[in-house]
Known about the structure:
This protein is mainly alpha-helical. Helices cover 64% and strands 1% of the residues. The chain has helices spanning 14-32, 38-60, 67-81, 89-97, 117-146, 148-199, 217-222, 229-234, 243-251, 264-274, and strands at 213-214, 260-261. The longest helix has 52 residues, at 148-199.
Amino acid sequence: MNFRLVPLRYGADWRSVFLLTLLGILLLVQWAGWFRHWSLLLLTCVLTFVACIIKHNHIHCRTFASRPWNRGLEYFLGICTGQSTAAIIPVHNERHHAQNHTEQDFVRSSLVNFRRNWLNLILFPFAVVRLVHRTKSADILRWRTEKPALYRRVQRERLVVLVFFIGLLLLDWRSTLIYFGVPWLFAQWGIVTINLLQHQDCDHDSAFNHSRNITGRFINWLFLNNGLHTAHHLRPAMHWSRLAEFHRLHVEPHMRPELNQRSLLVSIWKQFFQIGERKKS
């Protein structure tokens, strides 16, 4: 396919297009009942989480050179993840990045502080949702006067997701709840909870030791370098395809080596299960 027909700003985002296309096919095939299997649903959950990562990448560095293409992608991402694309800007861009690990950061790891860290892993998303639910509407309402174009964009995206979801429920409520609802919930749980792994027990005042990184090649291929979190915080507008080189040259020489883990599963085990209790900070 000619790049002129699909105006991607970075060629690496053909991977994003491929993964989103695969997700769209899986959602349709299962919802329509053409083929269903638990392993397919599991793969759909993982790819819906990847769609949340693509959404995250897009709000930092837009995917297409064309505004209509970007708007179309934002609507599609909303349908794939069950949430407006622009609606994550207040929590992520304005709070997590601009006010990292302060009282204004609604995904700060200090929201949970039990000695048994597996409890923190379980309860963290509930703590985040509770806090976001209380304030997110006010943040978006503030855009009505401060950023009217962004406010209208959020409302349009929310309306598309709502109409799409209601339409599917009317056609087949059971299939909709299973084959859209389950992946949506899994992806939202994953994209929220990953913040705990990335930031818990790190030095939030340090330029290089404020985040934990997953450096394995496969996981970063699938998750579009989302494991290289220190580099992303240092250069949030940098395209995801450039983070690996930036991490190698400008982050790794200056950071604590233990904050680099090759395996996502090993990192989760060490952080939340290997040590039964931890000192409260």
